Amino acid sequence: MGFKEAFTRQGDGENLLFDDDAFIYFAISILTLVILPLVYSVIKPLFTTYVLGENKRKLARVPKSGNDQLNLQLAKQELKLKWLTTGYVFKIIILVALLLMLNASIQSLPNAEKIKGFDPYEILEIDPTATEQEIRKAYRKISLKLHPDKNPDDPQANQKFILLTKAYECLTDEDKKSLCMKYGNPDGQQSLSVGIAMPSFLLKKENRAAFLAVIFLLLLVVVPIIVLYELRSIGKYDQNGVMLSNQEKFERGLEENLLIKKGVELSSCSDELCRLRLKSEQQAIDLEKLVNELKEEAELRKIQKFEITEALEQSKKQKNKKRRVTISVAMILIYAHLFGKPIPQSVISLYRSTIKIIPKLVNSMVRLAFEFSMKYKVIQWRQRGRFQTKFMGARCINNILQFSQCIVQGIYETDNPINQIEFFATKAKDYIKKGKMPVFQELVQKQVDQRVLPSWVPEEFKDEIMKEINMFPQLDIKPEVTVDDESIVEQCNEDIFSIKITLTRMNTPEGEDIPFAHSNRFTYVKEEGWHILITFQNEVFYYAFLNGSNREQSTEFKFQPKMYFGDIVEFEFVLFVISDCYRGLDSEIPIKFKAKKASQISRAVEYHKEDQELDKSLPFIQSMLFPMQNKVEDSDSEDEDQSKKDDE
């Protein structure tokens, strides 16, 4: 129904009309608002991947070693299809459907002639030069076609007939013709007509049931499902992408003297990894062989209370099959990774996904341990009718990160950190006899021209070893303690102190991005990360995590000593800089400074000239009151003068 159908209302008691043209314009507007952000979300991953080459620049930072290049190829394959997820395909399907709807709406737009206004000649299908007889003849002919009695199935037949009658009256009645020429309506000036931007097919009775069914389906089924899905996803993951349901498990498992095997247990029982299942018999056979190899390796390493061995022994003692202890698939794969065992091809995908997520789990454990160490100091919970407590501090966080380092480098906690270099991990045993292994940290931190390898290392491997050593970070750490007010000479415990920690990767040229973490055993590309811990009297005082591509990174913390430590005036902080991916490169640096009590120093209070002038001036409210007071005094004096004159 177009603009001209507004003339067909038959009185004030009739319901509002459904306007097809208004509905089309409304639909086009809504579809456009929905399509534009949807197009952006579809194009953005393609644009960043193939046009900007953002991922290509990131992956160019991968070190040029054997395992790193393998990880690079796998990462490229994954990133090429990373955007092609189920959600992305669903977006494309919705976008295509909306574009088709938009095209159909545009195609059905009313033409200019339909919305140009009320034209009686067009309605009667005659020329403007038609005679009165031709007008009557045309009216009779069309009225026979449009009469409501002859069109019972057309819900708009009555409106069309009324429109035809008004067009005839406009051309045959001089008064109505003049009103039409003046107001565009044979009835004269009209009040504002209101219609509903809904399609007119809803007026048909046979369409109402289907329409109500669709509305019922959308409002009571589709919308609640979408809302529930979004509510479930909101608050389900933490900032590291780890499920929040792991928090209770981590709280109970974390402890001050955490060992590597405890880290394996916590990781394998997380909600992300405990759901791993074998899908074929070949996987079960390969995993069983791997378990036997791990048992032998644990015996060679003289590991006491090895979880896999204990689980197998308990399972054998248990006659009831339902109560037998099962070994987690993730636990087997993690130990195989730490022991350097070859992974069967049938479970390689499970292995890669397992090792890839562990650094995220570790970061969540560290964040949780820090929060509890700051808030509660001691964790307490009820277990088997008793309350158990334990302390979480810097040592707990440090031990968690030691586990992360072992995972990234693929070495066990008792292994020499020099095994992070491929030659010493795989080939050194064939050449070393009475010699000693070099100290990993000394090799990395020394300048290139000062590095000396043991004499038993063959010459053909030395260049390769030196190149790999340079892939590890040569870190320069600069802690700095300052006071916000630089003019202060004597510092007191009520001043605002700032501790700034700056990390610089010295073996990365200025202006270049630092490479990804180097590892011969990790299963994916990973950013180098550094955990900053500042402790005071063995308690964690400050925590920060630095990672990214910048050669120089820093973190800063401001505090007032009196607020945190009371009347203490001598401060001995300990700065821990702990890597999340390298063994043996952690640093422990003392930070000492003194601050007198506020009562022990006297500071002259100096005022700025502008402040002194402001002190001399009246406050705003008083400045507003004084003029009023002067006016009142003036008026009182005038009244007194006038009264004296009257008395005289």
From TrEMBL:
One of its GO terms (cellular component) is Sec62/Sec63 complex. Residues 627-648 are annotated as: Disordered. Its main location: endoplasmic reticulum. Keywords: Chaperone, Endoplasmic reticulum, Membrane, Protein transport, Transmembrane, Transmembrane helix, Transport. Residues 119-184 form the J domain. InterPro entries: C2_domain_sf, DnaJ_domain, Ig_E-set, J_dom_sf, Sec63-dom. This is J domain-containing protein.
